[in-house]
RNA sequence: GUGCCCGUAGCUCAGUUGGAUAGAGCGUGGGUCUCCGGAACCCAAGGUCGGGGGUUCAAGUCCCCCCGGGCACGCCA
Protein backbone atom coordinates (compact mmCIF):
# COMPACT_ATOMS: atom_id res chain seq x y z
CA UNK A 1 0.00 0.00 0.00
CA UNK A 2 2.90 2.33 0.72
CA UNK A 3 4.21 1.62 -2.73
CA UNK A 4 1.06 3.03 -4.25
CA UNK A 5 1.58 6.40 -2.63
CA UNK A 6 5.31 6.43 -3.10
CA UNK A 7 4.95 5.89 -6.82
CA UNK A 8 2.55 8.77 -7.20
CA UNK A 9 4.68 11.02 -5.02
CA UNK A 10 7.88 10.25 -6.90
CA UNK A 11 6.23 11.07 -10.20
CA UNK A 12 5.01 14.40 -8.90
CA UNK A 13 8.40 15.28 -7.41
CA UNK A 14 10.13 14.47 -10.65
CA UNK A 15 7.73 16.17 -13.02
CA UNK A 16 6.77 19.23 -11.05
CA UNK A 17 9.85 19.97 -8.97
CA UNK A 18 12.55 18.04 -10.86
CA UNK A 19 13.69 16.45 -7.62
CA UNK A 20 14.72 12.87 -6.99
CA UNK A 21 16.15 10.71 -4.27
CA UNK A 22 14.69 12.74 -1.42
CA UNK A 23 14.89 10.94 1.91
CA UNK A 24 11.35 11.38 3.14
CA UNK A 25 9.13 8.96 5.04
CA UNK A 26 5.72 7.47 4.44
CA UNK A 27 4.31 6.02 7.61
CA UNK A 28 1.21 5.57 9.67
CA UNK A 29 0.44 8.78 11.53
CA UNK A 30 0.39 8.62 15.30
CA UNK A 31 -3.21 9.70 15.36
CA UNK A 32 -5.16 7.31 13.20
CA UNK A 33 -7.93 9.85 12.68
CA UNK A 34 -5.61 11.90 10.54
CA UNK A 35 -5.45 9.25 7.83
CA UNK A 36 -4.02 5.89 6.87
CA UNK A 37 -0.58 7.07 5.93
CA UNK A 38 1.28 10.36 6.07
CA UNK A 39 4.41 11.87 4.59
CA UNK A 40 6.79 14.54 5.81
CA UNK A 41 8.10 15.27 2.31
CA UNK A 42 7.06 18.94 2.39
CA UNK A 43 9.37 19.73 5.29
CA UNK A 44 12.33 18.44 3.32
CA UNK A 45 11.12 20.07 0.14
CA UNK A 46 10.78 23.47 1.75
CA UNK A 47 14.55 23.69 2.15
CA UNK A 48 15.09 23.14 -1.55
CA UNK A 49 12.27 25.33 -2.79
CA UNK A 50 12.32 28.00 -0.08
CA UNK A 51 8.59 27.82 0.42
CA UNK A 52 6.83 27.03 3.71
CA UNK A 53 5.86 23.36 4.13
CA UNK A 54 2.19 24.16 4.60
CA UNK A 55 2.02 25.93 1.23
CA UNK A 56 3.76 23.05 -0.48
CA UNK A 57 1.47 20.55 1.19
CA UNK A 58 -1.53 22.46 -0.12
CA UNK A 59 -0.36 22.53 -3.70
CA UNK A 60 0.88 18.96 -3.73
CA UNK A 61 -2.17 17.42 -2.12
CA UNK A 62 -4.36 18.80 -4.90
CA UNK A 63 -2.42 16.90 -7.49
CA UNK A 64 -1.96 13.70 -5.55
CA UNK A 65 -5.54 12.68 -4.88
CA UNK A 66 -6.98 10.08 -7.19
CA UNK A 67 -9.51 7.26 -7.12
CA UNK A 68 -7.24 5.17 -4.90
CA UNK A 69 -6.69 7.68 -2.12
CA UNK A 70 -7.43 11.17 -0.87
CA UNK A 71 -4.52 13.43 -0.01
CA UNK A 72 -5.13 16.12 2.59
CA UNK A 73 -2.67 18.76 3.71
CA UNK A 74 -2.39 19.55 7.41
CA UNK A 75 0.26 21.74 9.02
CA UNK A 76 2.86 20.79 6.47
CA UNK A 77 2.09 17.09 6.45
CA UNK A 78 0.16 15.36 3.73
CA UNK A 79 -2.22 12.73 5.01
CA UNK A 80 -3.53 9.98 2.81
CA UNK A 81 -6.73 8.06 3.15
CA UNK A 82 -7.42 5.08 0.96
CA UNK A 83 -10.77 4.82 -0.74
CA UNK A 84 -13.05 1.97 0.19
CA UNK A 85 -12.79 0.74 -3.38
CA UNK A 86 -9.00 0.55 -3.21
CA UNK A 87 -9.03 -1.26 0.11
CA UNK A 88 -11.45 -3.86 -1.14
CA UNK A 89 -9.54 -4.30 -4.35
CA UNK A 90 -6.40 -4.94 -2.31
CA UNK A 91 -8.29 -7.27 -0.05
CA UNK A 92 -9.60 -9.33 -2.95
CA UNK A 93 -6.02 -9.68 -4.08
CA UNK A 94 -5.12 -10.93 -0.60
CA UNK A 95 -7.89 -13.54 -0.71
CA UNK A 96 -6.87 -14.70 -4.16
CA UNK A 97 -3.19 -15.03 -3.50
CA UNK A 98 -3.55 -16.15 0.14
CA UNK A 99 -0.17 -16.30 1.88
CA UNK A 100 1.62 -15.43 -1.36
CA UNK A 101 0.09 -11.99 -1.15
CA UNK A 102 2.53 -11.21 1.65
CA UNK A 103 5.69 -12.57 0.10
CA UNK A 104 7.63 -10.98 -2.67
CA UNK A 105 10.90 -11.91 -4.23
CA UNK A 106 13.28 -9.50 -2.53
CA UNK A 107 16.12 -12.01 -2.26
CA UNK A 108 16.05 -13.12 -5.89
CA UNK A 109 17.75 -16.36 -4.98
CA UNK A 110 20.68 -14.71 -3.23
CA UNK A 111 22.53 -17.31 -1.19
CA UNK A 112 22.69 -16.52 2.50
CA UNK A 113 23.93 -18.40 5.48
CA UNK A 114 22.57 -17.84 8.95
CA UNK A 115 24.74 -19.11 11.77
CA UNK A 116 23.08 -19.15 15.15
CA UNK A 117 23.01 -20.74 18.59
CA UNK A 118 26.47 -22.35 18.17
CA UNK A 119 26.53 -22.94 21.91
CA UNK A 120 29.55 -24.75 23.29
CA UNK A 121 28.85 -28.48 23.66
CA UNK A 122 30.10 -28.43 27.22
CA UNK A 123 26.74 -27.86 28.83
CA UNK A 124 23.02 -27.73 28.17
CA UNK A 125 21.43 -24.78 26.39
CA UNK A 126 20.35 -21.88 28.55
CA UNK A 127 17.86 -19.14 27.94
CA UNK A 128 20.16 -16.89 25.99
CA UNK A 129 20.76 -19.68 23.51
CA UNK A 130 17.03 -20.20 23.31
CA UNK A 131 16.53 -16.60 22.39
CA UNK A 132 19.20 -16.89 19.73
CA UNK A 133 17.52 -20.03 18.42
CA UNK A 134 14.13 -18.35 18.20
CA UNK A 135 15.41 -15.19 16.57
CA UNK A 136 17.65 -17.07 14.16
CA UNK A 137 14.87 -19.43 13.18
CA UNK A 138 12.43 -16.57 12.61
CA UNK A 139 15.05 -14.77 10.56
CA UNK A 140 15.54 -17.89 8.48
CA UNK A 141 11.82 -18.28 7.87
CA UNK A 142 11.48 -14.62 6.98
CA UNK A 143 14.39 -14.55 4.54
CA UNK A 144 13.30 -17.78 2.94
CA UNK A 145 9.76 -16.48 2.45
CA UNK A 146 11.16 -13.43 0.70
CA UNK A 147 13.14 -15.26 -1.91
CA UNK A 148 16.52 -15.83 -0.32
CA UNK A 149 18.25 -19.16 -0.56
CA UNK A 150 19.17 -19.67 3.09
CA UNK A 151 21.27 -22.26 4.88
CA UNK A 152 21.06 -22.65 8.68
CA UNK A 153 24.29 -23.57 10.35
CA UNK A 154 25.51 -24.46 13.81
CA UNK A 155 29.21 -24.15 14.57
CA UNK A 156 30.29 -26.70 17.12
CA UNK A 157 33.15 -25.54 19.31
CA UNK A 158 34.39 -29.03 20.00
CA UNK A 159 38.07 -28.20 20.20
CA UNK A 160 40.45 -26.47 22.55
CA UNK A 161 41.00 -26.00 26.22
CA UNK A 162 37.32 -25.86 27.17
CA UNK A 163 36.80 -29.43 26.02
CA UNK A 164 39.81 -30.43 28.10
CA UNK A 165 38.28 -28.74 31.14
CA UNK A 166 34.99 -30.40 30.41
CA UNK A 167 36.62 -33.84 30.31
CA UNK A 168 38.54 -33.01 33.45
CA UNK A 169 35.36 -32.03 35.26
CA UNK A 170 33.67 -35.27 34.31
CA UNK A 171 36.68 -37.28 35.40
CA UNK A 172 36.72 -35.52 38.75
CA UNK A 173 33.08 -36.44 39.34
CA UNK A 174 33.73 -40.01 38.21
CA UNK A 175 36.59 -40.36 40.69
CA UNK A 176 34.26 -38.93 43.30
CA UNK A 177 31.76 -41.69 42.59
CA UNK A 178 34.45 -44.32 42.96
CA UNK A 179 35.88 -42.62 46.04
CA UNK A 180 39.22 -42.09 44.34
CA UNK A 181 41.36 -39.15 45.49
CA UNK A 182 43.51 -37.12 43.12
CA UNK A 183 44.78 -33.92 44.74
CA UNK A 184 46.11 -32.33 41.55
CA UNK A 185 42.88 -33.01 39.70
CA UNK A 186 40.85 -31.64 42.58
CA UNK A 187 42.76 -28.36 42.63
CA UNK A 188 42.39 -27.89 38.92
CA UNK A 189 38.69 -28.71 39.10
CA UNK A 190 38.03 -26.29 41.90
CA UNK A 191 39.87 -23.57 40.06
CA UNK A 192 38.50 -23.91 36.53
CA UNK A 193 36.14 -26.89 36.33
CA UNK A 194 32.48 -26.94 35.40
CA UNK A 195 30.43 -27.21 38.58
CA UNK A 196 26.95 -27.80 37.14
CA UNK A 197 24.86 -30.73 38.24
CA UNK A 198 24.71 -32.09 34.74
CA UNK A 199 28.39 -33.04 35.09
CA UNK A 200 27.46 -35.33 37.97
CA UNK A 201 24.76 -36.89 35.80
CA UNK A 202 27.26 -37.48 33.04
CA UNK A 203 29.67 -39.02 35.54
CA UNK A 204 27.01 -41.47 36.67
CA UNK A 205 26.46 -42.54 33.09
CA UNK A 206 30.19 -42.93 32.61
CA UNK A 207 30.37 -45.12 35.68
CA UNK A 208 27.48 -47.24 34.47
CA UNK A 209 28.85 -47.53 30.96
CA UNK A 210 32.60 -47.98 31.45
CA UNK A 211 32.62 -49.25 35.04
CA UNK A 212 35.95 -49.71 36.78
CA UNK A 213 37.69 -49.56 33.45
CA UNK A 214 37.90 -45.77 33.82
CA UNK A 215 40.13 -46.06 36.86
CA UNK A 216 42.65 -47.94 34.80
CA UNK A 217 43.06 -45.15 32.26
CA UNK A 218 45.98 -42.80 32.45
CA UNK A 219 44.67 -39.43 33.69
CA UNK A 220 45.38 -37.36 30.57
CA UNK A 221 44.01 -40.09 28.36
CA UNK A 222 40.88 -40.29 30.51
CA UNK A 223 40.33 -36.55 30.29
CA UNK A 224 40.52 -36.67 26.53
CA UNK A 225 38.22 -39.66 26.27
CA UNK A 226 35.65 -38.25 28.66
CA UNK A 227 35.80 -34.85 26.96
CA UNK A 228 34.92 -36.49 23.69
CA UNK A 229 32.25 -38.57 25.32
CA UNK A 230 30.79 -35.52 27.05
CA UNK A 231 30.73 -33.44 23.88
CA UNK A 232 28.89 -36.21 22.09
CA UNK A 233 26.34 -36.46 24.86
CA UNK A 234 25.81 -32.71 25.19
CA UNK A 235 25.41 -32.37 21.46
CA UNK A 236 22.68 -34.99 21.50
CA UNK A 237 21.03 -33.08 24.31
CA UNK A 238 21.32 -29.77 22.46
CA UNK A 239 19.91 -31.22 19.25
CA UNK A 240 17.02 -32.74 21.12
CA UNK A 241 16.16 -29.48 22.85
CA UNK A 242 16.32 -27.53 19.60
CA UNK A 243 14.16 -30.13 17.89
CA UNK A 244 11.71 -29.87 20.76
CA UNK A 245 11.32 -26.19 20.07
CA UNK A 246 11.08 -26.76 16.34
CA UNK A 247 14.45 -25.33 15.41
CA UNK A 248 16.37 -27.22 12.78
CA UNK A 249 19.73 -26.80 11.13
CA UNK A 250 20.88 -27.72 7.66
CA UNK A 251 24.49 -28.16 8.64
CA UNK A 252 26.48 -28.77 11.81
CA UNK A 253 30.08 -27.73 11.35
CA UNK A 254 32.65 -29.06 13.78
CA UNK A 255 35.58 -26.85 14.71
CA UNK A 256 37.67 -29.94 15.22
CA UNK A 257 36.99 -31.09 11.68
CA UNK A 258 38.26 -27.77 10.32
CA UNK A 259 41.57 -28.45 12.02
CA UNK A 260 41.64 -32.05 10.84
CA UNK A 261 40.99 -31.04 7.24
CA UNK A 262 43.85 -28.58 7.34
CA UNK A 263 41.62 -25.55 6.71
CA UNK A 264 42.90 -23.71 9.74
CA UNK A 265 46.49 -24.32 8.72
CA UNK A 266 45.70 -23.07 5.21
CA UNK A 267 44.17 -19.83 6.31
CA UNK A 268 47.04 -19.13 8.70
CA UNK A 269 49.45 -19.70 5.84
CA UNK A 270 47.42 -17.31 3.70
CA UNK A 271 47.68 -14.57 6.31
CA UNK A 272 51.38 -15.22 6.68
CA UNK A 273 51.91 -14.95 2.94
CA UNK A 274 50.13 -11.62 2.88
CA UNK A 275 52.51 -10.43 5.56
CA UNK A 276 49.88 -9.78 8.20
CA UNK A 277 51.50 -11.93 10.87
CA UNK A 278 54.60 -11.92 13.06
CA UNK A 279 56.15 -14.09 15.72
CA UNK A 280 56.60 -12.90 19.28
CA UNK A 281 57.40 -14.84 22.43
CA UNK A 282 57.02 -18.04 20.48
CA UNK A 283 53.46 -17.32 19.36
CA UNK A 284 52.17 -16.33 15.92
CA UNK A 285 50.23 -13.06 15.91
CA UNK A 286 47.82 -11.51 13.46
CA UNK A 287 48.20 -7.76 12.97
CA UNK A 288 44.54 -7.07 13.68
CA UNK A 289 45.39 -3.57 14.90
CA UNK A 290 46.07 -2.74 11.25
CA UNK A 291 42.45 -3.54 10.53
CA UNK A 292 40.57 -1.65 13.19
CA UNK A 293 41.07 -3.82 16.28
CA UNK A 294 42.68 -2.26 19.38
CA UNK A 295 45.42 -4.85 19.55
CA UNK A 296 46.98 -7.76 17.75
CA UNK A 297 45.73 -11.27 18.40
CA UNK A 298 47.32 -14.67 18.71
CA UNK A 299 46.70 -17.21 15.96
CA UNK A 300 49.03 -19.98 17.13
CA UNK A 301 50.03 -20.32 20.75
CA UNK A 302 53.61 -20.79 21.82
CA UNK A 303 52.82 -24.46 22.41
CA UNK A 304 51.95 -24.76 18.73
CA UNK A 305 48.18 -25.11 19.04
CA UNK A 306 45.94 -22.76 17.05
CA UNK A 307 43.51 -20.52 18.93
CA UNK A 308 39.74 -20.39 18.64
CA UNK A 309 40.22 -17.20 16.66
CA UNK A 310 42.30 -18.98 14.02
CA UNK A 311 39.64 -21.65 13.70
CA UNK A 312 36.93 -19.08 13.35
CA UNK A 313 38.78 -17.21 10.62
CA UNK A 314 39.12 -20.49 8.77
CA UNK A 315 35.42 -21.21 9.26
CA UNK A 316 34.42 -17.86 7.80
CA UNK A 317 36.92 -18.03 4.99
CA UNK A 318 35.51 -21.45 4.21
CA UNK A 319 31.99 -19.98 4.21
CA UNK A 320 33.14 -17.39 1.74
CA UNK A 321 34.71 -20.03 -0.49
CA UNK A 322 31.44 -21.93 -0.45
CA UNK A 323 29.96 -19.03 -2.38
CA UNK A 324 27.54 -17.37 -0.01
CA UNK A 325 26.53 -13.87 -1.08
CA UNK A 326 26.22 -12.91 2.54
CA UNK A 327 26.46 -14.33 6.00
CA UNK A 328 24.46 -13.44 9.09
CA UNK A 329 25.79 -14.45 12.49
CA UNK A 330 23.80 -14.30 15.68
CA UNK A 331 26.10 -13.83 18.63
CA UNK A 332 25.63 -13.46 22.32
CA UNK A 333 26.21 -9.87 23.37
CA UNK A 334 29.24 -10.90 25.40
CA UNK A 335 31.07 -11.42 22.09
CA UNK A 336 30.85 -7.78 21.17
CA UNK A 337 34.55 -7.19 21.61
CA UNK A 338 35.34 -10.12 19.34
CA UNK A 339 33.81 -8.57 16.23
CA UNK A 340 36.63 -6.16 15.27
CA UNK A 341 39.23 -8.91 15.10
CA UNK A 342 37.10 -11.20 12.97
CA UNK A 343 36.07 -8.35 10.69
CA UNK A 344 39.74 -7.40 10.53
CA UNK A 345 40.82 -10.88 9.54
CA UNK A 346 38.18 -11.09 6.80
CA UNK A 347 39.27 -7.72 5.49
CA UNK A 348 42.86 -8.92 5.44
CA UNK A 349 41.73 -11.88 3.37
CA UNK A 350 40.07 -9.59 0.88
CA UNK A 351 36.47 -10.37 1.78
CA UNK A 352 34.10 -7.42 1.27
CA UNK A 353 33.22 -5.46 4.41
CA UNK A 354 29.45 -5.93 4.24
CA UNK A 355 29.60 -9.65 3.51
CA UNK A 356 29.42 -10.54 7.21
CA UNK A 357 26.56 -9.15 9.28
CA UNK A 358 26.49 -9.83 12.98
CA UNK A 359 23.29 -9.49 14.98
CA UNK A 360 23.71 -9.47 18.72
CA UNK A 361 21.34 -11.32 20.95
CA UNK A 362 21.33 -9.92 24.46
CA UNK A 363 21.05 -12.07 27.49
CA UNK A 364 17.85 -13.19 29.09
CA UNK A 365 17.55 -12.59 32.79
CA UNK A 366 15.35 -14.98 34.59
CA UNK A 367 13.34 -13.84 37.58
CA UNK A 368 11.54 -15.93 40.11
CA UNK A 369 10.06 -14.79 43.39
CA UNK A 370 11.19 -11.29 42.53
CA UNK A 371 14.81 -12.42 42.50
CA UNK A 372 17.12 -12.98 39.61
CA UNK A 373 18.20 -16.55 38.97
CA UNK A 374 21.80 -16.54 37.92
CA UNK A 375 22.84 -18.79 35.12
CA UNK A 376 26.43 -19.85 34.98
CA UNK A 377 28.07 -22.94 33.65
CA UNK A 378 31.09 -22.53 35.88
CA UNK A 379 29.40 -21.93 39.19
CA UNK A 380 26.59 -24.38 39.06
CA UNK A 381 22.87 -23.90 39.36
CA UNK A 382 20.91 -22.68 36.43
CA UNK A 383 17.64 -23.30 34.72
CA UNK A 384 18.02 -24.96 31.39
CA UNK A 385 16.16 -24.01 28.29
CA UNK A 386 14.57 -27.42 28.22
CA UNK A 387 13.09 -26.95 31.67
CA UNK A 388 11.62 -23.60 30.71
CA UNK A 389 10.13 -24.96 27.48
CA UNK A 390 8.46 -27.78 29.35
CA UNK A 391 7.22 -25.41 32.00
CA UNK A 392 5.60 -22.71 29.84
CA UNK A 393 5.34 -24.23 26.39
CA UNK A 394 7.23 -23.74 23.16
CA UNK A 395 4.80 -21.29 21.59
CA UNK A 396 4.85 -18.95 24.57
CA UNK A 397 8.63 -18.98 24.79
CA UNK A 398 9.03 -18.29 21.10
CA UNK A 399 6.52 -15.48 21.19
CA UNK A 400 7.95 -13.79 24.25
CA UNK A 401 11.50 -13.98 22.94
CA UNK A 402 10.29 -12.06 19.91
CA UNK A 403 8.41 -9.32 21.72
CA UNK A 404 11.58 -7.38 22.11
CA UNK A 405 14.42 -6.30 19.87
CA UNK A 406 17.02 -9.01 20.17
CA UNK A 407 19.89 -6.62 20.88
CA UNK A 408 18.53 -5.40 24.19
CA UNK A 409 18.35 -7.44 27.39
CA UNK A 410 15.12 -9.23 28.21
CA UNK A 411 13.71 -9.89 31.64
CA UNK A 412 11.73 -13.08 31.84
CA UNK A 413 9.62 -13.50 34.95
CA UNK A 414 9.03 -17.20 35.11
CA UNK A 415 6.37 -16.98 37.83
CA UNK A 416 4.33 -14.53 35.83
CA UNK A 417 4.41 -16.59 32.67
CA UNK A 418 3.69 -19.78 34.56
CA UNK A 419 0.83 -18.39 36.61
CA UNK A 420 -0.84 -16.33 33.95
CA UNK A 421 -0.48 -18.66 31.07
CA UNK A 422 -3.92 -17.65 29.90
CA UNK A 423 -2.96 -13.97 29.98
CA UNK A 424 0.00 -14.56 27.77
CA UNK A 425 -0.16 -12.53 24.54
CA UNK A 426 0.57 -15.59 22.44
CA UNK A 427 -2.79 -17.07 23.42
CA UNK A 428 -4.51 -13.87 22.51
CA UNK A 429 -3.26 -14.13 18.94
CA UNK A 430 -3.78 -17.88 18.71
CA UNK A 431 -7.27 -17.47 20.10
CA UNK A 432 -8.11 -15.05 17.33
CA UNK A 433 -7.08 -17.64 14.77
CA UNK A 434 -8.97 -20.43 16.50
CA UNK A 435 -12.04 -18.23 16.72
CA UNK A 436 -12.02 -17.55 13.01
CA UNK A 437 -11.66 -21.23 12.29
CA UNK A 438 -14.49 -21.87 14.73
CA UNK A 439 -16.77 -19.59 12.78
CA UNK A 440 -16.06 -21.41 9.55
CA UNK A 441 -16.73 -24.73 11.29
CA UNK A 442 -20.02 -23.40 12.57
CA UNK A 443 -21.00 -22.09 9.14
CA UNK A 444 -20.37 -25.47 7.62
CA UNK A 445 -22.44 -27.16 10.28
CA UNK A 446 -25.37 -24.78 10.13
CA UNK A 447 -25.56 -24.03 6.45
CA UNK A 448 -23.60 -26.88 4.96
CA UNK A 449 -21.34 -24.49 3.08
CA UNK A 450 -17.60 -24.17 2.97
CA UNK A 451 -17.11 -21.01 0.91
CA UNK A 452 -14.23 -21.07 -1.54
CA UNK A 453 -12.08 -18.08 -2.32
CA UNK A 454 -14.00 -17.27 -5.52
CA UNK A 455 -17.28 -16.75 -3.69
CA UNK A 456 -15.62 -14.96 -0.80
CA UNK A 457 -13.89 -12.60 -3.20
CA UNK A 458 -17.18 -11.97 -4.91
CA UNK A 459 -18.87 -11.01 -1.64
CA UNK A 460 -16.08 -8.83 -0.25
CA UNK A 461 -18.10 -5.89 -1.54
CA UNK A 462 -20.90 -6.63 0.95
CA UNK A 463 -18.74 -6.14 4.00
CA UNK A 464 -19.77 -2.57 4.82
CA UNK A 465 -18.74 -2.22 8.47
CA UNK A 466 -16.34 0.60 9.30
CA UNK A 467 -14.45 -1.55 11.83
CA UNK A 468 -14.17 -4.23 9.20
CA UNK A 469 -12.61 -1.79 6.78
CA UNK A 470 -10.03 -0.84 9.40
CA UNK A 471 -9.23 -4.50 9.84
CA UNK A 472 -8.87 -4.97 6.09
CA UNK A 473 -6.48 -2.04 5.95
CA UNK A 474 -4.41 -3.43 8.77
CA UNK A 475 -4.16 -6.76 7.00
CA UNK A 476 -2.97 -5.04 3.85
CA UNK A 477 -0.48 -2.91 5.77
CA UNK A 478 0.90 -6.05 7.37
CA UNK A 479 2.63 -6.64 4.06
CA UNK A 480 4.63 -3.43 4.50
CA UNK A 481 5.59 -4.50 8.01
CA UNK A 482 6.88 -7.85 6.79
CA UNK A 483 8.93 -6.09 4.15
CA UNK A 484 10.44 -3.82 6.80
CA UNK A 485 11.12 -6.84 8.99
CA UNK A 486 13.10 -8.56 6.24
CA UNK A 487 15.07 -5.52 5.20
CA UNK A 488 16.03 -4.62 8.76
CA UNK A 489 16.40 -8.23 9.90
CA UNK A 490 13.93 -7.52 12.71
CA UNK A 491 11.51 -10.39 13.17
CA UNK A 492 10.13 -8.79 16.33
CA UNK A 493 8.15 -6.35 14.20
CA UNK A 494 5.89 -9.22 13.14
CA UNK A 495 4.74 -9.84 16.70
CA UNK A 496 3.43 -6.32 17.19
CA UNK A 497 1.35 -6.41 14.04
CA UNK A 498 -0.03 -9.81 14.98
CA UNK A 499 -1.20 -8.41 18.29
CA UNK A 500 -2.83 -5.49 16.56
CA UNK A 501 -4.59 -7.65 13.99
CA UNK A 502 -5.84 -9.93 16.76
CA UNK A 503 -7.05 -6.94 18.73
CA UNK A 504 -8.92 -5.44 15.78
CA UNK A 505 -10.44 -8.81 15.05
CA UNK A 506 -11.63 -9.49 18.61
CA UNK A 507 -13.11 -6.03 18.67
CA UNK A 508 -14.90 -6.57 15.38
CA UNK A 509 -16.09 -9.97 16.41
CA UNK A 510 -17.65 -8.64 19.59
CA UNK A 511 -19.61 -6.03 17.70
CA UNK A 512 -20.69 -7.85 14.56
CA UNK A 513 -22.41 -11.15 14.20
CA UNK A 514 -21.30 -13.12 11.21
CA UNK A 515 -24.22 -15.51 10.79
CA UNK A 516 -27.01 -13.11 10.01
CA UNK A 517 -30.23 -13.27 7.96
CA UNK A 518 -28.77 -11.30 5.09
CA UNK A 519 -26.72 -13.96 3.33
CA UNK A 520 -24.75 -11.45 1.25
CA UNK A 521 -23.69 -9.64 4.39
CA UNK A 522 -22.77 -12.94 6.00
CA UNK A 523 -20.59 -13.88 3.06
CA UNK A 524 -19.04 -10.43 3.10
CA UNK A 525 -18.12 -10.81 6.75
CA UNK A 526 -16.80 -14.30 6.12
CA UNK A 527 -14.56 -12.89 3.45
CA UNK A 528 -13.13 -10.50 6.01
CA UNK A 529 -12.55 -13.39 8.41
CA UNK A 530 -10.80 -15.40 5.75
CA UNK A 531 -8.35 -12.53 5.33
CA UNK A 532 -7.77 -12.45 9.09
CA UNK A 533 -7.08 -16.16 9.03
CA UNK A 534 -4.55 -15.79 6.22
CA UNK A 535 -2.77 -12.86 7.85
CA UNK A 536 -2.54 -14.45 11.28
CA UNK A 537 -1.38 -17.74 9.87
CA UNK A 538 1.34 -16.10 7.80
CA UNK A 539 2.60 -14.15 10.79
CA UNK A 540 2.48 -17.06 13.20
CA UNK A 541 4.23 -19.35 10.74
CA UNK A 542 7.00 -16.84 10.29
CA UNK A 543 7.76 -16.80 13.99
CA UNK A 544 7.33 -20.55 14.28
CA UNK A 545 4.25 -20.46 16.49
CA UNK A 546 1.26 -22.74 15.89
CA UNK A 547 -1.91 -21.37 14.37
CA UNK A 548 -4.40 -23.71 16.08
CA UNK A 549 -7.75 -24.82 14.69
CA UNK A 550 -9.17 -24.89 18.20
CA UNK A 551 -7.83 -24.38 21.69
C1' G B 1 40.26 2.70 34.11
C1' U B 2 39.03 2.35 28.54
C1' G B 3 35.31 0.98 24.87
C1' C B 4 30.28 -0.45 23.66
C1' C B 5 24.96 -1.13 24.91
C1' C B 6 20.78 0.26 27.85
C1' G B 7 17.52 3.84 31.06
C1' U B 8 10.04 5.35 28.03
C1' A B 9 3.23 4.29 32.61
C1' G B 10 3.18 0.29 38.93
C1' C B 11 5.55 -4.21 35.81
C1' U B 12 7.34 -6.16 30.84
C1' C B 13 8.33 -3.61 26.57
C1' A B 14 7.21 -0.99 21.25
C1' G B 15 8.45 3.58 19.25
C1' U B 16 16.01 3.87 16.21
C1' U B 17 17.16 6.79 8.24
C1' G B 18 14.49 13.42 13.66
C1' G B 19 8.03 14.62 12.29
C1' A B 20 1.85 16.01 14.44
C1' U B 21 -1.44 15.57 21.12
C1' A B 22 4.63 9.61 23.29
C1' G B 23 1.88 3.78 22.42
C1' A B 24 0.70 -1.68 23.57
C1' G B 25 0.15 -5.81 26.88
C1' C B 26 -0.16 -7.05 31.97
C1' G B 27 -1.83 -5.01 36.56
C1' U B 28 -5.68 -1.42 38.84
C1' G B 29 -10.96 0.80 38.80
C1' G B 30 -15.67 0.78 36.27
C1' G B 31 -18.86 -1.31 32.56
C1' U B 32 -20.73 -5.06 28.22
C1' C B 33 -23.57 -11.01 27.45
C1' U B 34 -31.13 -13.99 25.27
C1' C B 35 -26.19 -14.04 20.55
C1' C B 36 -21.32 -17.74 15.77
C1' G B 37 -15.84 -19.67 21.25
C1' G B 38 -16.11 -14.68 27.73
C1' A B 39 -9.02 -17.43 26.82
C1' A B 40 -13.46 -11.87 24.47
C1' C B 41 -15.06 -6.56 24.16
C1' C B 42 -15.67 -1.20 25.80
C1' C B 43 -14.30 3.03 29.03
C1' A B 44 -11.03 5.25 32.64
C1' A B 45 -6.95 6.44 35.73
C1' G B 46 -1.69 6.12 35.15
C1' G B 47 4.35 9.83 31.82
C1' U B 48 9.63 15.77 34.22
C1' C B 49 10.69 9.58 27.78
C1' G B 50 17.20 8.93 34.03
C1' G B 51 19.05 14.53 34.78
C1' G B 52 21.17 18.97 32.48
C1' G B 53 22.83 21.65 28.22
C1' G B 54 23.09 22.06 22.74
C1' U B 55 21.72 21.49 17.21
C1' U B 56 16.84 22.02 14.40
C1' C B 57 10.94 24.71 11.63
C1' A B 58 10.55 19.95 14.60
C1' A B 59 14.28 15.77 19.63
C1' G B 60 12.15 9.71 23.17
C1' U B 61 15.19 9.66 18.49
C1' C B 62 21.19 13.47 16.79
C1' C B 63 25.71 15.91 19.75
C1' C B 64 28.19 17.06 24.72
C1' C B 65 28.37 16.48 30.16
C1' C B 66 26.52 13.97 34.51
C1' C B 67 23.81 9.92 37.25
C1' G B 68 22.27 4.75 37.31
C1' G B 69 22.48 -0.47 35.26
C1' G B 70 24.82 -4.18 32.00
C1' C B 71 28.69 -6.26 28.88
C1' A B 72 33.64 -6.61 26.93
C1' C B 73 38.71 -5.71 27.58
C1' G B 74 42.94 -13.82 27.80
C1' C B 75 48.48 -17.45 24.18
C1' C B 76 39.33 -19.12 27.11
C1' A B 77 35.82 -20.29 23.58
Please tell me about this protein's structure:
The protein has 551 residues and is α/β, with parallel strands linked by helices. The chain is built from 22 helices and 15 strands. A hairpin with a 2-residue loop joins strand 8 (277-280) and strand 9 (283-286). The chain binds one RNA strand of 77 nucleotides through helix 6, strand 9, strand 10, helix 13 and strand 15.
What layout of secondary structure does this protein have?
Layout: H1 2-17, E1 26-27, E2 37-39, H2 41-49, H3 53-64, E3 69-74, E4 77-82, H4 84-97, E5 111-115, H5 127-145, E6 149-156, H6 161-178, H7 183-192, H8 197-210, H9 213-216, H10 219-244, E7 251-254, H11 255-260, H12 263-273, E8 277-280, E9 283-286, E10 297-300, H13 308-321, E11 326-332, H14 339-348, E12 356-361, E13 364-368, E14 371-373, H15 385-392, H16 394-401, E15 410-413, H17 414-419, H18 425-447, H19 453-459, H20 466-487, H21 492-511, H22 519-542
Parallel strand pairs: 5-6, 5-11, 6-7, 11-12, 13-15
Antiparallel strand pairs: 1-2, 2-4, 3-4, 8-9, 9-10, 13-14
The chain binds one RNA strand of 77 nucleotides through α6, β9, β10, α13 and β15.
Write a brief caption for the model.
The protein is α/β, with parallel strands linked by helices and 551 residues long. It contains 22 helices and 15 strands. The two termini are 34 Å apart.
